[in-house]
Design a protein that fits this description.
There is one protein chain. The chain is an all-alpha fold and 459 residues long. The protein contains 15 helices and no strands. Helix 9 runs parallel beside helix 13 and helix 13 packs antiparallel against helix 15.
C-alpha cells in the first residue's frame, strides 16, 4: 500500500494534518479534564456532563459538515470548484439555526440539561455556571467545524491544524491562570475552565477567517446573495444525502447520552470513573480519525472523477491501515491505563473502576475505528447515508441501549461490565458495514448532472 507514492502523498496531505489537529484537540480536552480533576470527583463529573452536552452539538453539526464535505470533495475531483461556496452559505445558515437553538436551551436551563445525566444536587448546583459558559462556545465551534470540513475536502487541511494548535496553547495557559488563580488572576475553578474554553474557541475561529479572507480563498464569502447557485438536482441530492447523516449523528449521540444517563444514575463515583476514559477515548480516536477523513475526501474525489476502481482500491487500503494502527494504539492503552488513572484526585476504588473502563475501550478500539472508516468515511463518500442511518440506529437502539439498562439496573453489574456488554453493538455494526463495503452498492457519483451522462443521483 505504501509503495504507491501518489497514494502516500495524498494520504499524508489529508490524514496527517487531521490527525494532528484531532490529537491536539484531544490533548486540550485531556488537559481540561486533568486540571479540573484536581478539584475533586464532583468537578470531574460536571466536566463529563458538559462534554456530553457539547458532543450533542458537535455531532449534529458534524453530520451537516460531513454532507457538505462529501459534495465538496466530489466537486473538487470533478474540477467544479465554483460549486463549493454555495454549500458553505447554506451550511452556515443552517448551522447558526441549530447551534443557536442548542446554546439558548442549555444556557437558559443548565440544570435541566444536566438533569438528564445525573440527579446529584451538589453536582447540578456546582456545574450549572460551567455549562452555561461553555454553551456560548457552541457558535464559534459550529463555524470552525464547517470551515474545517470544507477546507479538508478541498485539500487544505493545514490551516485548521494551525488554528487548533494555537487554540490549545492558549487554552492550557488560560486554564493554568484561571482555574488555580496564578499570576494575579482570580481563582475561578470550574468557571475558569469554561472561560478558557470560550476564549480559545473564538481565537481558533478568528485565525481561520482572517487567513481565508487574507488569501482570497474560495471559501471567503463576500456576496451571500450569490451563494445558492447550484442546479436543483444537486440540491435535492445534497439534502437526500445530508439529512440521513444528520439523523445518524443525532441518533448516535442520543444513544451515547442514554449511556451517560445510565452511568450517571449508577452513582457519581461510577460516572467519574467512566469520565476518566473520555480524554483517552478522544485522544485515541483523534490519532486515527485522519484515516476516516482521508477516506471521505480521497474516495469522494475519485468518485466525482468517475474513477470507481480507484475509489474501491483506496477504500480497502485505508481500512487495512486503520485496523492495524488501532490494534497498536489499543495495546499502548492497556499498558498505560494504571498510570493514567492515578493522575486523578479520586479514591482507589474509583481509579480501579476507571482502569477497567480504559481496558474495555482498548479491547474494542479496532472495532470502533473500523466502523469510523467504513460508515463515516467510505460509505458516506458515495452518498450511502440512508443505509448507514438504518445500520447504526438499529444497532444502537435495539442492542446497545437495552443492554445498558439491563446490565446496570436489572443485573446491577459494575460499570466496566455494563460498558463491555453494551459495546457488542459495535461488533454488529462492523459486520454489517463490511458486508455493505464489499457489495459496492455505495460506489456512486453524486455531482454528475443529467447532461454528463454519468452515474445518476441517488433516488
Amino acid at each position: 500500500m505504501f509503495r504507491d507514492k501518489s497514494f502516500r502523498q495524498e494520504l499524508w496531505q489529508i490524514a496527517l494534518p487531521v490527525t494532528i489537529q484531532s490529537v491536539i484537540m484531544s490533548l486540550l480536552a485531556m488537559t481540561d479534564q486533568l486540571m479540573v480533576g484536581q478539584l475533586g470527583v464532583v468537578a470531574i463529573a460536571a466536566a463529563g456532563i458538559s462534554a456530553k452536552l457539547t458532543s450533542i452539538v458537535a455531532v449534529v453539526l458534524n453530520g451537516l459538515a460531513s454532507g457538505m464535505a462529501i459534495y465538496a470533495a466530489q466537486f473538487w475531483g470533478r474540477g467544479e470548484r465554483h460549486r463549493i461556496p454555495p454549500l458553505l452559505g447554506f451550511g452556515l445558515a443552517l448551522g447558526l439555526l441549530l447551534a443557536g437553538a442548542l446554546a439558548l436551551a442549555v444556557g437558559c436551563w443548565p440544570q435541566q440539561a444536566m438533569g438528564w445525566f445525573s440527579q446529584d444536587p451538589q453536582l447540578l448546583s456546582q456545574g450549572a455556571g460551567f455549562v452555561q459558559l461553555v454553551a456560548i462556545s457552541y457558535l464559534p465551534q459550529m463555524m470552525t467545524l464547517l470551515y474545517s470540513s470544507l477546507l479538508r475536502a478541498t485539500g487544505e487541511a493545514r490551516l485548521p491544524m494551525y488554528a487548533s494548535s494555537s487554540a490549545v496553547v492558549l487554552n492550557v495557559l488560560l486554564n493554568y491562570l484561571l482555574i488555580f488563580g496564578h499570576a494575579g488572576c482570580p481563582r475561578l475553578g470550574l468557571t475558569g475552565a469554561a472561560v478558557a474554553t470560550l476564549i480559545s474557541r473564538l481565537v481558533e475561529l478568528a485565525i481561520i477567517l482572517v487567513t481565508l479572507y487574507w488569501r482570497g480563498h474560495v471559501l471567503a464569502i463576500t456576496r451571500f446573495d450569490r451563494q445558492w447557485g447550484l442546479p436543483a438536482g444537486i440540491w435535492r441530492g445534497f439534502i437526500a444525502t445530508t439529512i440521513p447523516i444528520v439523523l445518524t449523528e443525532l441518533l448516535w449521540v442520543m444513544g451515547e447520552s442514554a449511556y451517560a444517563m445510565v452511568y450517571g444514575h449508577m452513582g457519581t463515583d461510577q460516572l467519574a470513573a467512566m469520565t476518566m476514559t473520555y480524554p483517552l477515548q478522544g485522544l485515541s480516536i483523534g490519532l486515527l480519525c485522519g484515516l476516516s477523513a482521508a477516506a471521505s475526501v480521497l474516495v469522494g474525489q475519485r468518485l466525482g472523477a468517475d474513477d470507481f476502481s480507484g475509489a474501491i482500491t483506496c477504500a480497502r487500503r485505508l481500512l487495512r491501515l486503520g485496523l492495524a494502527a488501532s490494534l497498536l494504539v489499543g495495546l499502548l492503552l492497556v499498558v498505560g491505563a494504571r498510570s493514567y488513572v492515578s493522575l486523578y484526585d479520586a479514591s482507589a476504588d474509583v481509579q480501579l473502576q476507571g482502569q477497567w473502563c480504559v481496558w474495555v475501550f482498548a479491547l474494542l478500539l479496532w472495532v470502533k475505528v473500523g466502523n469510523m472508516i467504513i460508515a463515516g468515511g467510505i460509505l458516506n463518500s458515495g452518498g450511502d447515508s440512508r443505509f448507514v442511518l438504518v445500520m447504526e440506529s438499529l444497532a444502537t437502539w435495539l442492542i446497545g441501549v437495552p443492554s445498558a439498562f439491563i446490565m446496570a439496573f436489572w443485573l446491577q453489574l459494575p460499570i466496566h461490565w455494563v460498558y463491555l456488554v453494551l459495546s457488542v453493538e459495535e461488533l454488529v455494526r462492523l459486520a454489517v458495514g463490511y458486508w455493505r463495503l464489499r457489495s459496492r452498492r455505495w460506489v456512486r457519483n453524486l455531482v454528475a448532472t443529467p447532461a454528463d451522462d454519468a452515474v445518476p443521483l441517488p433516488s
